[in-house]
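Internal tracking record. Fields below are filled automatically when a chain is submitted to the structure queue. Please do not edit lines marked as system-generated. If the sequence contains nonstandard residues, flag them in the REMARKS field before resubmitting.
Queue: standard
Priority: normal
Entity type: single polypeptide chain
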Amino acid sequence: MARDPLPAPRRVLGHAVHPVDLEAAARWALHLCHEAGPDGRSVIVTLNPEIVVRARADTALATALAGASLTVADGVGVVWAAKRSGVDLPGRVPGVELVERVLQQGGGSLRVFFLGGRPGVSERAAAAAAARWGVVVAGSRHGYFERSSEGARVAREIADSRPHLLLAGLGEGQELFLSDHRRALGAGAAIGVGGTLDVLAGEATRTPAWTRRLGLEWAWRVGLDPKRWHRVPRLAEFALLTLRDDSRKRERRDAR
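SYSTEM-GENERATED OUTPUT FOLLOWS
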């Protein structure tokens, strides 16, 4: 399927981010699902401020992020950081909206494996996706397994189902799992989807529309859920990183 080449990524706080909007990201993700060859399994990363901060202290995570085939700006903070550094991005590509758009466009031509969440969540997410968009459920599995000792077995289970797309909702370990088992997974493309499976399964609801328009979903979720308050220091660190990066670039420009 001929198409224009994927735009060259921009650098945002040391990470490659592709300057694509939601529609373009969904088209490219679907293309990767069907067109990736046996030696070219694709990982799609939805970059947000927390991942950026974690990668500064985790070289394995930083390496995993660098190996992605497509990286989109999930968090509004990434778009803000890009703008502060003079990088033009079309806007956010929220992970849950990207997944929904890919499933919608793929429909019955798309075989999907749903991985993650508590027991029962991935099954309900798969059933809901099949009913809503007609996707073919290749398989489903909960996310409660030991990554180091059981990861290879889970990867084989996924590969045996012959999926075009793997949706992996494994929390903070999802990017590492996808990177470690990239070639063994058998899927044309894999996306780390965080809590998206909970949304598809009806276990969690999206924030009000006005928070999504303003890019304030994170504030809504953190403010209402004490379990998420641990995110605040990371978000503050991300803001500080952005301001420091902006200051350094200004100093270099002034020195010329």
